[in-house]
Design a protein that fits this description.
mainly beta; 2 helices; 8% helix; 2 domains; seven-stranded antiparallel sheet; SH3 type barrels
Length: 197
């Protein structure tokens, strides 16, 4: 048995046991390989929305598409201020503000919410913005995401400058909160004066 991490620049399509269609796994997702036989290498997903599911890749692909190196850093911290539509993230110092927005018909309330490991590709792929289909689900009662401003929108917190999304993506994708499902938290404030640093 060996722990490995998806090591591809984008989503990796794999076969899950007892499922006909191939399933995308997000980069850096943690898995455990447990068996190699009949030209296949079998693994179990250890985190994210596919946790405990089992799948396989062709013999030799575990070294081609997965890494033994643990890439993870401590949980990510994101702040969003509703009345100014500004977002910050913490990477040894606060970076921001970035222009962002929330859906007026389904706004995020003030509070702290988990940012979950990306579940599947969203929106329309834009080759100009390579990571634009990787959205971070916000653990709130409605279907909310931290995502870039692309053709397809969704409730949650939208980063308006798509070019900045790559920085946020690279910051969050290797972060883990330690609960096997989250990369960090987003704190939502009503005003800038409410924001605690």
């Amino acid at each position: 048995m060996s722990i490995k991490y998806v090591n591809t620049p984008g989503w990796l399509l794999v076969n899950f046991l007892n499922e006909e269609e191939r399933v995308p796994l997000v980069p850096y997702l943690k898995v455990e390989f447990y068996l190699a036989e009949n030209g296949k290498e079998y693994f179990k997903v250890l985190e994210g929305n596919h946790i405990s599911k089992e799948g396989y890749v062709n013999q030799g692909d575990s070294n081609r598409f997965f890494s033994d190196v643990n890439p993870f850093l401590p949980e990510g911290l994101v702040h969003f201020v509703k009345n100014t539509n500004q977002l910050w993230y913490y990477n040894e110092q606060w970076i921001g503000p970035l222009n962002a927005s929330t859906d007026a018909s389904n706004p995020l309330p003030v509070g702290t919410f988990d940012l979950k490991i990306p579940d599947e590709p969203h929106g329309v792929f834009n080759p100009e913005y390579y990571y634009s289909t990787t959205w971070f689900p916000i653990d709130y009662e409605t279907n909310n995401f931290l995502h870039p401003n692309v053709e397809t929108s969704a409730p949650g917190c939208t980063v308006m400058d798509v070019a900045k999304w790559e920085h946020i993506y690279k910051y969050l994708i290797i972060r883990r909160k330690g609960d096997n499902k989250s990369v960090g938290t987003i704190k939502v404030f009503e005003t800038e004066n409410d924001r605690e640093i």
